[in-house]
Amino acid sequence: MKISLIGAGPGREGLISSEAKKLIDEADILIGSERTMRSFGRGKTTYNIYKPEEIISKIKNTGVGKNVAVLFSGDPGFFSGGKKLLNLLDRDESLKGAEINVIPGISSMQYFMENLHLTWENTVLTSLHGRSANLIGYIRDNARVFSLFGNGDEIRETVEKLHYYGMDHVRILIGENLSYPDENIILTDPKGFLDEAISVGRLSVALFINEKALSRAGVRIGDDLFIRGDVPMTKSEIRSLSLLKLDLKKDSVLYDIGAGTGSVSIEAALMMPDGNVFAVESKDKGINLIRENKRKFAADNVTIINGSAPEALDGLIRPDRVFIGGSGGRLKEILEKVFSLNPEVRVVMNIVSLETLNALGGIVDEMGLISDLTLVNIARMKKTGDHSMFTGLNPVYIAELKKDGGNELQR
Q1: Which H or E run includes 239?
Q2: Which residues on neighbouring strands pair with residue 371, listed in sequence order?
Q3: To bridge 259 with a disulfide, which of 58, 84, 220, 281 should be the other Cys (CB 3.0-4.6 Å)?
Q4: CA–CA dist 107, 7 (Å, integer)
């Protein structure tokens, strides 16, 4: 029995390899989407399915002892179901004796970029076809971003966001029906796309070119760059130390409880392009400032939660990081909630009053937590006439908390 996972290219029959054509000709059964099999299914038993679990079931029920070719649009290793199908094949004991082949194909990205006479080694590759991604963040920070799309609505939503975040300078090249007779390439920008009410079909691709990409190695936002109003804000030095102690990963899920102006949320969101930040704030002034700062910095992976913790945390994705900038006198309830959601969560909080510090000591003992406490004193230089003097900021305690038996705190 032979099972072949074959990259069928972008669509046109002439774009598949001779090895792929040979295996398709030898196959007794073809499996894939209707669109993918359109050029190859003549005279074959075909099954129009594409979900890996359904493909495995069909092979076991009808394909035992036969040659089976599973066709993937583009390349099996480029944002397809090939990876999951291979894992299922490897784990299925009843198919252990089968010969499994993986045949690469020309991906839609390769076809599109080379038709545009552009190289792609420095292009960020992503997909919104059946998955989520922080596409706005990628475009903000990178000169070139390529993405697959499952339908025209996804492209329109992305363009609307680019316009909302003030990124009308981004050039957009959209490809439809690649390699087919009705292939269409659109060159536009966010404002032009929306003004002309451009319509895009299913299974399209797009290249975003941002000549003003930030391309930064790290993230540090000065306090003066945030829109502040009269809402208290975590100062940049304290923010930097707190984020360092949070030890964020690029795909972390962070709750920022008592988010205030959103300074921690925004800076964290820019540090983790594949992560999610939930900025929890109960005051209308704070909510409005977070919304303004989110727009200013194009931090699309920040979700604003209007409410008070712990109730406002219900229904959110489970966190692996929590920052507490304000607890509204409900610190114990908040800690109980976040540790119930994830016993291994890393919690960092800022404390400015002795009353809160004393309360934390009792909560740590009562809940059996392990804490690590740092006192930070910062002074900033200030010009006074002909002299330069230092003015001290309020001392801040930075607490790291974990459950006893959880991951060790980094010291």
Answers
A1: helix 236-246
A2: 401
A3: 281
A4: 8
Tokens 């996804």 belong to 154
Judge whether 320 lies within some domain: yes
User: Which residue range(s) make up the domain with 354?
Assistant: 223-403
3-state secondary structure of 32: strand
Residues 74, 168, single domain; the answer is no
Distance, in Å, from the CA atom of 220 to the CA atom of 198, rounded to the nearest integer, reads: 38
Strand residue runs (E) in 189-324: 205-209, 253-257, 276-281, 302-306, 321-324
Strand order in the sheet with 184-188: 124-127, 144-148, 205-209, 171-176, 184-188
- Can you tell me which residue has the tokens 């006479």? 117
| Confidence band of 314 (pLDDT split at 50, 70, 90) | very high
287 shares a domain with 158: no
DSSP one-letter string for 103-129: E----HHHHHHHHTT---TT-EEEE-S
Q: How far apart are CA 285 and CA 275, in angstroms?
A: 26
Kindly state the DSSP code that residue 300 receives in the 8-state scheme.
T
Last residue of a domain, one of 90, 106, 122: 106
What pLDDT is stored for residue 94 in this prediction? 86
Q: What are 391's strand-pairing partners?
A: 380
CATH code, domain with 236: 3.40.50.150
pLDDT tens for 327-344 read: 999 999 999 999 999 999
- Whether the Cβ atoms of residue 55 and residue 70 lie closer than 8 Å to each other: yes
Element (H, E) at 376: strand 369-376
What is the C-alpha to C-alpha distance for residues 188 and 185, in angstroms, rounded to an integer?
A: 10
Give kind and range of the element (H or E) at residue 244: helix 236-246
